[in-house]
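[Automated response] Your request has been received and processed.

Submitted sequence:
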Amino acid sequence: MAKKAYGLNTICTHIGEIQDEQFKGSVSPIYMSTSYQFEDVDIKRYPRYFNTPNQEFLAKKMAALEHAEAALIFGSGMAALSAMFLTFLKKGDHLVVQNTLYGGASNFIKEEFPKYGIEFTFTDGYQISDFERAIQPNTKVIHIETPSNPLLTITDIKGVAELAKSKGILSTIDNTFASPVNQNPIDFGIDVVMHSATKYIGGHSDILAGVLMASEDIINRVWHVARNYGGSLSDMTVWLLERSIKTLGLRVKAQNRNAKKMARFLENHDDVKSVNYPGLKSHPDYALAKSQMKGFGGMMSFELREGLDASIFQKQLQLIKSSMSLAGVESTMLSPHLTSHALLTQEERDKVGISNQLIRFSVGIESKNDLIHDIEQAIQRTKELVQVYM
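Generated structure:
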């Protein structure tokens, strides 16, 4: 009999649980030991080897969520990203990377790759033709991010995967903004999926973690490299992450609904210049997003009209938090040029369209009317302050 395919919320709740055989508790026990027996055992467990009981079983849950064979849990999204790149790229190799990308990832590539002798090309855009033009004879990896941070551009996942396979190139994706609830890139042919699990996977703004999902062979290759870098996660945090994932489907779907309403509200607001949200029909990549996403996510960005300063506006918010991260159950806003993309130069930000007026909005699960009221009062207060300054 074929094994039943579980639904999303069942996977979130039950896959990757550790059965409490001794006391029959309903949640996974925590194994906090950093020292395990090495004789007469099937697995020599060691925290840095990503194979403590809690690490091992959480990896099963994450692999199931992303329709992958295996996974590795890391101490941060950047730990996962760097381990992935340094596994498959060596001196003389070349990386093609999407130009609309998380600023920390861009900075890592630009600062660290020259030290290793790894070459790289940022695409001119995010169309398949842009990736194809950037490929060189020594290209080994194509890396994309969709929806992108913070402009919410949409890249054709299947198109990139097919292009990479036709050239014998590994395809990788940062799927953080979408989450496994809204998008499963492996179903479209992508080889490696990564997440900053600090974001939607954790979902409560209290966990720092990262994760990679791929085939058994790819994960095994990453493991042989990553174990030398020490980027694994403590078992207490692993346990908290498993606890948080149980509500992942419920949280993200609520955020999807809220974000769509907030995007429509902002798009129709006289004091808003533009809104970037793939769930709006006005978004240039709406049709593509609809074809590869099950939901449009809880992330968007927008610009206020000329004369309304983004920084002043955010300081007037009373409910929505001005905060560095994203994807928690609470709504947050930030200015990318001061935070996620602060390490890029002004010229680099201008090139990809990240203006100083751009505001990234991570929509939480609060009442829509309360969020609207907070934005309205903050805009009104900003207008009053602008008048005072003039």
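Summary generated for your ticket: The mean pLDDT is 95. The chain is about 40% helix and 15% strand.
If you did not submit this request, please reply to this message.
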